[in-house]
Write a structure and sequence with these properties.
Length: 504
């Protein structure tokens, strides 16, 4: 590798070209970046990093065959580069090409058996596939080599929790916290997981205390104020836009609409996170006439980030469908493409602008259960999820998102239905049939056994492990165990409890 890289470094023009391409890639300016990477790869074909970045640029232009070709070339050139193989594996993961991701993680481990990251990446892959024994083998092998490693100790406790051995998980987490983890993420995550575990064990006051301590820890390692301000500014802009939206505008979008690529019908399944969207998506996705997608990035990448800068909505629709379908290698025979994505409910006006014939399904759940459930989630921090660091801002986020829905619902001019989590739990077939028929299809027997189908799939939602078993009543009324913590916020939630039929 040193020879080819040294030759490139001796050419200042190529070095400058590579740097410009990297800047374009970071700015999501994919077409000029791809052109530059193609030229650089032709001139310096033995540099694996060039091929890796070319693959990233190709992925950004939706040229997935070229992206795969570039990643394969990078892997061939650097079979001993564990760090690069790990990064390629992460890219495959984001493209939802899971077998290739696993091959890269295994390659990284073969290249560097001492790599903790490689072992943990592979363990996470197995856990997401619900192959807990193999995940545990990876972690235990890591601990055998590095018994004090924070990441391995944390993930070992997490796997004990996934096996429902919560007493053992709590014991390990307490020891880990007492030892003072070096990694900032583990400092936070160990406390957060201990809160979750204690809640499962019925020790609700202790659970809340550890959760609050975990979230306070996050604020010491991340400038959460910046994220909160970004969120608040976006919320103000969204409310201003919604205040000017009219029924006539929505009707105008319908009149100007063109046919969908491939003749597909698009349906959106939204609502606030933790409102039962994943459960309903699995029920609907078990129907042979529905191809369901679990929180795909297509809307964010092809619509939210582009629609304000283009008037070519037909091209936007084409890009969206192409990006969506990259997740399936088989010919698409389903009539309905279902995008399950709670957070983009905030952008329903964009959805309807691009897809005026969109069928909208909004999942509802007792707002108090939603708030508590979101507060217990440990998910990647961004300008949305930063709100879940306090109960006050979790309630604010709930109000912001559901205000968007109430405003759009009041305007009308599109097809929508609401579905209650509690109704699904109480009568899966009745509620599932009602929503299926809203999509223009008849109930199919396979939908009743949705959890069996879910076990065969790699799910991306934070609740991926909950929908691999039949529906259960345990999450209904969960908020009552934490009523004291919620009491100061009940007044803010009361209007939404009334609006959606959850008033006591």
């Amino acid at each position: 590798m040193s020879g080819p890289m040294e030759r490139l470094r001796k050419n200042p023009r190529d070095v400058a070209k590579w740097q410009r391409a990297q800047q374009q890639l970071l700015a999501a300016d994919y077409l000029p970046a791809l052109s530059a990477y193609r030229d650089l790869a032709r001139r310096h074909p033995a540099i694996a990093e060039l091929w890796f970045e070319l693959g990233n640029a190709a992925s950004g232009t939706l040229d997935f065959p070229l992206a795969n070709q570039a990643y394969r070339r990078a892997r061939e050139l650097a079979p001993g580069n564990a760090a690069l193989l790990g990064m390629i594996g992460q890219q495959y993961q984001s493209l939802r090409q899971l077998d290739d991701a696993r091959a890269c993680f295994e390659g990284a481990l073969a290249a560097d058996p001492g790599s903790v990251d490689a072992r943990i990446n592979l363990a996470v892959w197995f856990e997401k596939q619900r192959r807990l024994d193999e995940a545990m083998e990876c972690v235990e092998a890591c601990l055998a080599r590095f018994p004090g490693d924070d990441q391995a100790r944390y993930f070992h406790a997490f796997l004990l929790h996934r096996r429902k051995d919560d007493e053992a998980a709590a014991h390990e987490l307490r020891r880990l916290i007492e030892d003072g983890p070096r990694y900032p993420y583990v400092k936070y995550a160990a406390r957060h997981l201990l809160g979750v575990v204690l809640d499962q064990l019925g020790r609700c006051d202790d659970a809340m205390r550890w959760l609050l301590e975990a979230k306070a820890e996050v604020r010491t390692i991340t400038d959460t104020g910046v994220l909160e301000r970004a969120y608040d500014e976006a919320d103000r802009a969204r409310r201003e836009t919604l205040s000017t939206l009219t029924r006539e505008t929505i009707d105008g979008w319908k009149k100007a609409s063109s046919a969908m690529p491939g003749g597909h019908r698009i349906a959106f399944l939204g609502g606030h996170p933790r409102s039962g969207t994943t459960l309903m998506e699995q029920i609907l996705g078990a129907h042979p006439g529905i191809l369901a997608f679990d929180e795909p990035p297509a809307f964010q990448q092809e619509i939210a980030s582009r629609v304000q800068a283009t008037t070519d909505l037909a091209e936007t629709r084409r890009r969206y469908v192409k990006s969506l379908l990259r997740e399936t290698a088989d010919p698409v025979t389903a009539d309905v493409l279902l995008d399950k994505n709670p957070s983009p409910t905030m952008s329903l006006d964009l959805w309807l602008r691009v897809f005026p014939a969109l069928k909208v399904i909004i999942a509802l759940r007792d707002p108090r259960d939603v708030v508590i459930s979101c507060f217990f989630q440990n998910i990647m921090l961004n300008s949305t999820n930063v709100n879940f660091l306090s109960l006050e801002r979790t309630v604010k986020h709930y109000a912001d998102l559901m205000d968007t829905w109430l405003r759009i619902r009041d305007l009308g001019g599109f097809e929508w239905i609401e579905t209650r989590y509690e109704d699904t739990v109480a009568g899966l077939e009745n509620e599932g049939r009602r929503v299926t028929e809203f999509l223009g299809l008849s109930w199919h027997p396979t939908q009743a056994a949705f959890h069996e189908n879910a076990r065969k799939k790699f799910l991306y939602a934070p609740t991926y492990h909950d929908v691999t078993r039949p529906v259960y009543q345990g999450a209904v009324g969960r908020w009552q165990r934490h009523a004291a913590a919620l009491e100061p916020l009940q007044e803010k939630l009361a209007p939404y409890c009334r609006a959606f039929g959850y008033a006591d």
